[in-house]
């Protein structure tokens, strides 16, 4: 498989006043083409910080060391314009709370079209057609109607599908998903995860999912990275991690609550 992302000895420290917080402590991992990798761990383990470092969207008081290579290019060595061209285009992100991401003053269609036109030289009509087709791909019913609706008119599950549509509309190589089902009920969460599996196959994209939910891991992941207090404790094939965990922390997380054998 082709290596899409390589994180090499990534360290992230936050400097707040006189205080130094070591959020990520020298982690390394790779992500390959057409696979789903889950980073799992409790709050404060450094999962989301790792995701933000990949996109280079950490706050100014963060100090980042190490290398992040995307398609063999070191992200930290790219210009601002080169990074802008990558974000929302080759690398996209799905955040955990869609209401915090979507602009309440713009229609669903306007927000998708805005993303399309930021990276493509297309007409308004072409952008609209692409947006509606993308709404169909994320299985939103009546996409022509939804195109003209505002976020407050949609359910939580539909809003998350809109966020996913915005993330995939430019056919990214890598999709980052930070706790994408946290704000959703169990049934809706399962449907969103099924959608991720479908998108991986349809778009041949790689997906990095950040989660604390082992149910999410069992349902979609090919490989798993277990993080604790800024460090990687272990990583491996999803079956290996579930059936033969090495670290005591992973064993505690599993605690006999899930069996990977139940996965289809």
Can you give a write-up of this model?
The protein is of the alpha/beta class. It has a domain at 3-97 and 174-262: P-loop containing nucleotide triphosphate hydrolases (Rossmann fold). 38% of the residues lie in helices and 27% in strands. It is built from eleven helices and ten strands. The chain has helices at 47-55, 80-86, 98-101, 108-119, 124-137, 143-146, 156-168, 186-203, 214-220, 238-243, 248-254, and strands at 3-16, 19-32, 36-40, 62-70, 73-74, 91-94, 174-178, 206-211, 223-228, 231-237. Strand 1 (3-16) and strand 2 form a beta hairpin. Helix 4 packs across helix 5 and helix 5 (124-137) crosses helix 7 (156-168).
Write the layout of secondary structure elements.
Elements: E1 3-16, E2 19-32, E3 36-40, H1 47-55, E4 62-70, E5 73-74, H2 80-86, E6 91-94, H3 98-101, H4 108-119, H5 124-137, H6 143-146, H7 156-168, E7 174-178, H8 186-203, E8 206-211, H9 214-220, E9 223-228, E10 231-237, H10 238-243, H11 248-254
Parallel strand pairs: 3-8, 3-9, 6-7, 7-8
Antiparallel strand pairs: 1-2, 1-4, 4-5, 9-10
